[in-house]
Structures are given as structure tokens and as C-alpha cells.
Design a protein that fits this description.
Length: 378
């Protein structure tokens, strides 16, 4: 079983240590998103170690479609398959299924939908999601839930949240069963429940109180970063976080910008993930100590300085802005790779600095200084 230790608090910011079967996670932590067991942009699991990644996140829905979770199980699980010996979190597939709005039908038993690859009919419910994640043998499995679109009418949100709670109970029972089976690769797989409720604070709070009774390994705030304003997001975290147990990790799903992360850490969040740093990097948008820049801009044509002075990532240690801009213009894949490495390093280093700031009791001033230096660009 996992053990979460709250090491220090600075205001509401938590500094924790989460011990798992695949190693210790120092929190707050940013999980590097490798949807199909690979980071988009030609970044390997060995690269992830070099840039300080603690947790890799893979996608249940996508891996179920290809190569197939049974293939991954036959290969010894995701850790062996992708040659990664640190923690892996798998999302439940819920967000992907619900993003296929035109191709799905939600029922009490689960969701019927069509594959975005070949249109093949697929069914996924709580039990199926847990079975797929058990085959993948990730460290942390996420419960199967409905990610509610924003805005949604209150009656729909109430119905959906009640069903998500019933699904969570089924996820927990199925995971207990799977972890007891002889041929299960990771019998210590952990389960995180997901809080939903749109931007209705009372529904969010009631749902938080309900799922906390299940005494899960961790909890997540889902259904944000789906179109609401940053203020609505922060208000929702403010409402939910006090009702989550301090002795368990709290994960804000799919968030986000460096500024969002600082604000959420200030409100008690431990875990983060987002495709944004890798996606931005693939398009030449890179994060720096002074905000975000676009390397494709003409002003970098003769710029011999690194992306970010003082940065120790592989791109900044060896190459200039001018060279990386040239690679983009020449459509060389190395351009994407270097920028993705830089952005992920930037995020992992930011989390390291956040942990040091909470440890040192100066998180508030650290946050203000960072937000000012990014000037709202990042």
C-alpha cells in the first residue's frame, strides 16, 4: 500500500512524500504526459530521467485501442514495455470517451462509443476501465467517471455526479478483486477517486464528502480546464480542497499553465498533468524565466543565446535560439524534440523549486516573484 506523508505546510501549500511500489514521489509533482507510452516529440523514457521526471502518465483509452492492453500485459506491463522503472499513472479513459460526444451513449452500466481510429464499436464501464488499467499494471489507476462539459445545467450535473459516485464504488470493488488475482502484474495498484460537479460549489463539496468516505489512496479534482475561466477554476479548488483529506494526495487533472500550477499549489494541490508543455514545444512555443516565447519569430534568426539563460536542459546547454529556429524552418524533427525537452525540464524544475520554497517557508514570496517575472505571458 502507498503511504503519503505530509512533510510541511506553508499556508495551504502542501509538501508531501508519496511512497509507492514503483518508488517515492516528492510532491507537489508534475506528471509528464506520454499518452501512448511515449512523449510526443521523440522523447524517450531515458530522456525523462535526464530531465527530472518523477511520474509518467499514460492513457487508458488510447493504449486499449493500440497496441491493446492485453498486448501490454503479455509484455510484462507498461513499466517493462516502455522501459520505465518509476511511477506511472493511467487515466481512466473517461475524459477521452466523453470528448467523443458525437460518438457515444452513456448508460448506467457504462459508455458505448466508437473508436476514433476505425469506428469499431466499444463498451467501457467502471469494471472494464479497471481491467484495462490492471493489464497495463500502472502504479496509480484513475476511477472511471463522467467528465461533464462546461457549462452544464444543474439537474444534469446532479444526475451525472450521482452516477460517477456509483461508478466509483464499482471501480473500488473491481480493483480489490483484480489486485487479489494470481496473474495480476501489480497487486499493489492504487486507486484515485475523482471529484466532479462542474462549477457548482455545493455539488462539488457534497461529492467530495461522499467519495472521501471510501478511503481511497488519493483524490482528484476533475472536470476543470474544460472552458471555465481561471477564476472559476480557482474558486472551485478553494471550495473542494478543504474537504479532501490532508493525509492523501490531491490531483488537479489536466492543469495547466505554470501560473495555474502556482495558484493550485497555494490551494493545497499535490499532483498535476497537462499536454501543454509538450504540445507548445512541438510548435516552437517555449517557457522561460521571463515568460513564453515563439522561437519561430524572425527576431531569433541571429540570436546566439540559449532559450533560457541558466537553464540546464539538453537544448539550452548545447544550442542557440538561432539554430533551433533554423531547425523549425527546415522542418527537422530535432526542433520539436529539443523544445519538448526544454519545456518538460522547465516544468519539472519549477516543481523542484516549488518544493524547496515550501520546505523553506517562502512559498508566497516565491509565487509572487515567479508570476511577476512571467508577466502574465506564461
Amino acid at each position: 500500500m502507498a503511504k503519503y506523508t505530509l512533510l510541511k505546510k506553508d499556508g495551504n501549500a502542501k509538501r508531501g512524500r508519496f511512497e509507492t511500489v514503483h518508488g517515492v514521489i516528492e510532491t507537489p509533482v508534475f506528471m509528464n504526459v506520454g499518452t501512448l507510452a511515449a512523449i510526443k516529440g521523440a522523447v524517450s523514457s531515458m530522456d525523462l530521467k535526464d530531465i527530472g521526471c518523477q511520474v509518467e502518465l499514460s492513457n487508458t483509452y488510447h493504449l486499449h485501442l493500440r497496441p491493446g492492453d492485453k498486448v501490454v500485459k503479455a509484455m510484462g506491463g507498461l513499466h517493462k514495455f516502455m522501459n520505465w522503472d518509476r511511477p506511472i499513472l493511467t487515466d481512466s479513459g473517461g475524459f477521452q470517451v466523453f470528448s467523443l460526444a458525437s460518438m457515444r451513449k452513456i448508460k448506467e452500466e457504462g459508455v458505448y462509443f466508437s473508436s476514433h481510429i476505425d469506428g469499431k464499436k466499444i463498451f467501457m464501464g467502471p469494471e472494464e476501465s479497471m481491467q484495462i488499467q490492471s493489464n497495463l499494471a500502472s502504479t496509480i489507476a484513475m476511477a472511471f467517471d463522467e467528465c461533464i462539459p462546461n457549462p452544464s445545467e444543474r439537474p444534469y450535473v446532479l444526475d451525472s455526479v450521482a452516477r460517477t459516485t456509483r461508478w466509483l464504488e464499482r471501480c473500488k470493488n473491481e480493483m480489490d478483486r483484480l489486485n487479489s488475482l494470481e496473474d495480476t502484474i501489480n497487486k499493489d495498484q492504487l486507486l484515485f477517486g475523482i471529484n466532479q460537479g462542474g462549477i457548482y460549489e455545493d455539488i462539488r463539496i457534497a461529492h467530495a464528502k461522499e467519495i472521501v468516505k471510501m478511503d481511497l489512496d488519493g483524490y482528484a479534482i476533475g472536470g476543470l480546464a474544460v472552458g471555465e475561466t481561471h477564476e472559476e477554476m480557482y474558486r472551485t479548488i478553494d471550495a473542494v480542497a478543504p474537504h479532501m483529506p490532508e493525509n492523501k494526495p490531491l490531483y488537479l487533472m489536466g492543469v495547466g499553465l505554470p501560473s495555474n500550477i502556482l495558484e493550485a499549489v497555494d490551494r493545497g494541490v499535490d499532483f498535476f498533468d497537462c499536454v501543454l508543455p509538450a504540445r507548445n514545444g512541438r510548435h516552437g512555443h517555449v517557457f522561460t524565466a521571463h515568460g513564453k516565447i515563439n522561437l519561430k519569430n524572425a527576431k531569433y534568426e541571429l540570436d546566439s543565446t540559449p532559450i533560457d539563460e541558466g537553464c540546464q536542459c539538453p537544448a539550452c546547454k548545447h544550442y542557440s535560439k538561432a539554430y533551433i529556429r533554423h531547425l523549425f524552418k527546415a522542418k527537422e524533427l530535432l526542433a520539436m524534440r529539443l523544445c519538448v525537452l526544454h519545456n518538460l525540464y522547465f516544468y519539472n524544475k519549477l516543481m523542484e523549486d516549488i518544493r524547496a520554497a515550501i520546505d523553506g517557508g517562502y512559498f508566497k514570496s516565491f509565487k509572487e516573484e515567479k508570476l511577476a517575472s512571467w508577466q502574465g505571458k506564461a
